Amino acid sequence: MMDNVADQATQGKPGLLARLKQGLAKTRRGFSEQVAALFLGAKVIDQALLDSIETLLITSDFGVAVTRDVIDRLTQQVERKDLSDAMALKNALRVHLLGLLQNTATDLVLDGPGPQVILMVGVNGAGKTTTAGKLAHHFKQQNRSVLLAAGDTFRAAAVEQLKTWGARNDVDVIAQHTGADSASVIFDALAAAKSRAFDVLIADTAGRLQNKKNLMQELEKIVRVIRRQDETAPHSVLLVIDATTGQNAIAQAQAFMTDVEVTGLVLTKLDGTAKGGVVFALTQALGLPIHFVGIGEALDDLKPFDAELFVDAILQGTD
Ligand SMILES: Nc1nc2c(ncn2[C@@H]2O[C@H](COP(=O)(O)OP(=O)(O)OP(=O)(O)O)[C@@H](O)[C@H]2O)c(=O)[nH]1
Ligand SMILES: [Mg+2]
């Protein structure tokens, strides 16, 4: 089955690139068109061109550290006369951007025995519930059985929202009433997933409690409680980040990482930002893999993160 999935992934590449480019239309308009404008007509490399690239990176949310790193590398290459013209410089930029994402695009591997538990965490509005729904679709496409747990018991509409995603995917949702203990909902869901031999349990959580301390305590309790049933759970703790948050996303992620053992990132709403640079800033600052990116609100608008596709999608022009 895994071979099939791999084949499909390879065969689907051109289509996926097109889809990704469409989803990243804003990023491309914002970033790639500015790149194109920079290099259009620029035949020789001069300081002005390097300065313009630096400004573009900063204003596209790459962050100061990443921008400095890229510009330093380019400047050294220019000084060594490694780059003959502007096109060579653009190529070098592509290579450096790819290098930054080298260890970033990692598949979410879930292949242990028993139900594999995925915990969705993140601030309110980041896209946890939506991503849980899209992930259910993703795993069903791989012929895995999925159960959803409505661990957001704080927000009144949260359970209904997850149930809607469940119905869309023909996937059961384990839920209790608003105000119920989140850890006990997820504990029950894991018991159900075990007894019914599900492959994957995806647990939604609240994004906002009365304060950050309460939220972190709730997340810690969820982990503690489910480990009573399976000490290897949760097998994945996905921190969901809204890509339009910009540089604040880093501080936000760090706040979660102090209290919860985050294993990977999902970057949502990449379709809604002209500033794809946050992808680079985040991975460099946090050292976490990006497993998926969200590029819309539909069921299949969640894509496994592919560094090369991403860099090409944001660097290529409007073809
Ligand atoms: N355009 C776009 N919208 C998205 C994406 N992911 C999520 N959204 C939208 O973002 C909004 C918030 O998403 P939710 O999934 O409810 O966020 P949440 O993290 O569960 O929020 P709380 O439950 O309040 O903590 C919804 O309107 C989603 O449709 C994405 O990749 N692209
Ligand atoms: Mg939610």
Give the cofactors and ligands. guanosine-5'-triphosphate, magnesium ion
What is the number of helices?
A: 13
- Biggest β-sheet: strands ordered side by side in the sheet: 3-2-4-1-5-6-7-8
Q: Identify low-pLDDT runs.
A: 1-12
Kindly name the structural category: alpha/beta
Helix content: 40-55%
Strand content: 5-15%
Biggest β-sheet, characterized?
A: 8 strands, mixed
Apparent shape: elongated
Total strands: the figure is 8
Mean pLDDT across residues: 89
Kindly provide the radius of gyration, computed on alpha-carbon positions and rounded to a whole number of angstroms. 21 Å
User: Cα distance, first to last residue?
Assistant: 35 Å
Order of helices and strands: HHHHHHEHEHEHEHEHEHEEH
What is the assembly state of the chains in this entry? single chain
Give an overview in words.
The structure is a single chain. The protein is built from 13 helices and eight strands. It is an alpha/beta fold and 319 residues long. Strands 3-2-4-1-5-6-7-8 form an eight-stranded mixed beta sheet, sandwiched between helices. α12 links the parallel β6 (264-268) and β7 (290-294). α11 packs parallel to α12 (278-286). Magnesium ion is lined by residues 128-129, 152, 158, 204, 207.
What is the element layout, followed by pairings?
Layout: H1 2-11, H2 13-23, H3 25-39, H4 47-59, H5 64-79, H6 86-100, E1 116-121, H7 128-141, E2 146-151, H8 158-169, E3 173-174, H9 182-195, E4 200-205, H10 212-227, E5 236-242, H11 248-259, E6 264-268, H12 278-286, E7 290-294, E8 302-304, H13 307-315
Parallel strand pairs: 1-4, 1-5, 2-3, 2-4, 5-6, 6-7
Antiparallel strand pairs: 7-8
Helix pairs in contact: 2-13, 3-4, 4-5, 5-6, 7-8, 9-10, 11-12
The structure holds guanosine-5'-triphosphate (GTP) and magnesium ion.
